[in-house]
Amino acid sequence: MSLDKLSSMMTSLGFHHVRTYIQSGNIVFSAGDEFQSAIEMKITNGIQAVFGFEVPVIIRTEEAIRRIILSNPFIADHASGTENLFLCLLKSVPDQEGINKLREKVFVGEQLIADGDHLFLKIDDSYGNAKLNNNYIEGKLKLAATTRNWKTITAMLALADSIRP
């Protein structure tokens, strides 16, 4: 998916201050007062119309990302770096049964902490080799999810701060 084309699509849908970050669908934009679910649907429909396929769209406000960053329970243990920290954003808040299914298996060197509509992950090895990955999480929770490394999450907040009037 071309980020230039995606950015143009977002602008044509009426969003403002559209900025993209790296080639993985990370977008920062201003949306006015629309409800989150309406924005997600508008973007999903736009991607279907412009690119010809459907992908789950998961958005968070700048304030939500700021709260998430400040509440990461793994940060205190990682004063020397955050390269093994990840955030998994969920389409909605999972039920307790789903969270229990996620915790049924313990993977050595991998930890998760559920917090509403997101999961904090600590993966000691590379994320590419992780068992506690996006596919596993989606399968257990029966929810769409997207996982980003901590550097991306903090960069997205900085990008959001840069477009604020």
Structure in words:
With 165 residues, the protein is of the alpha+beta class. It folds into two domains: 3-59, SP0830-like domains (Alpha-Beta Plaits), CATH 3.30.70; 62-160, 2-Layer Sandwich (Alpha-Beta Plaits), CATH 3.30.70. 40% of the residues lie in helices and 21% in strands. It is built from six helices and six strands, in the order αββααβαββαβα. It has helices at 3-12, 36-51, 62-71, 96-103, 134-141, 150-163; strands at residues 16-21, 26-30, 85-90, 110-115, 118-123, 145-149. The strands form two sheets. The protein has a four-stranded antiparallel beta sheet with strand order 4-5-3-6. Helix 4 packs across helix 5 (134-141). The longest helix is centred in the N-terminal third of the chain and has 16 residues, at 36-51. The radius of gyration is 16 Å and the shape is globular.
Instruction: Work out the count of structural domains.
Output: 2
Strands across the major sheet, in which order?
4-5-3-6
- Integer-rounded radius of gyration: 16 Å
Helix-strand makeup class = alpha+beta
Number of strands: 6
